[in-house]
Amino acid sequence: MKKIFFVLLLSILFSANAYADDISDFQIGGMSIGDSLLDYFSDKNIKKKSINWNNKNKTYKQFLSTKSYNLYDTVVFSYLGKDKNYIIQEIAGRKNIDIKSCIKLQLEIVKQIEKLIPSAKKNDLGTRNYRGDKSKKSKITIVNFNTGQGLIQVGCYDFSDKITKERKFIDGINVSIGSKQFMEWQKSGAF
Questions:
Q1: CA distance 124 to 146
Q2: What is the largest CA-CA distance in the chain?
Q3: I want to staple 178 with a disulfide (CB 3.0 to 4.6 A). Which of 16, 39, 53, 90 is the partner?
């Protein structure tokens, strides 16, 4: 059953052309960078469920959707806080799975991305400490793909028992697509 799930996940993970040349060609949950959240959700719902990023100037906001996505348990969208059209600058699909299964799935997703965008610069960051856990017991294994127009990141999160209990964080995979503007902001202004 797990094998069927992984094959299904890979086959529909990204809705993209045979060879994608634009970051907006990739979709998560049928949505892409550059789309308006208003095409999928009501203004009232977006305002009600949006939160500010962990940043002083509140440049970006996040909207979390837990509606049924078959492949993902949640999808998180980031948009400019002052943007009344809620244009998606980053989109992340999250699936709760154990770390061993996550690493296998990550390898398969990475291979698929390499085929879809052979020109993207791959950066395998390996396993690192998760910056939100001061005890350094939580880990993240990350592979990034820089397309020139943005970044695709495939990460496996292995949270410590303490973080899981205190913050209710769950181990799993996170596949995110971010615009160049969003990624530059994350480097310089996010924290």
A1: 11
A2: 46
A3: 90
Nearest alpha-carbon partner for 35 in 83, 93, 67, 94: 83
Average pLDDT of the segment spanning 22-51: 90
Identify the H or E element spanning 42.
Answer: none
- What SS3 class is residue 190? coil
Q: Residue 140: which of 156, 163, 124 has the closest Cα? A: 156
Task: Look up residue 56 and give its two tokens.
Answer: 């002083």
Local structure of 34: helix, strand or coil: coil
pTM: 0.83
pLDDT tens digit sequence for 64-117: 988 767 778 999 999 998 999 999 999 999 999 999 999 999 999 999 999 989
> Of 70, 89, 116, whose CA–CA distance to 24 is shortest?
89
Give the amino acid at 31.
M
Helices (H), the chain: 2-13, 43-49, 99-116, 161-167, 180-188
Residue 87 is classified by DSSP as B
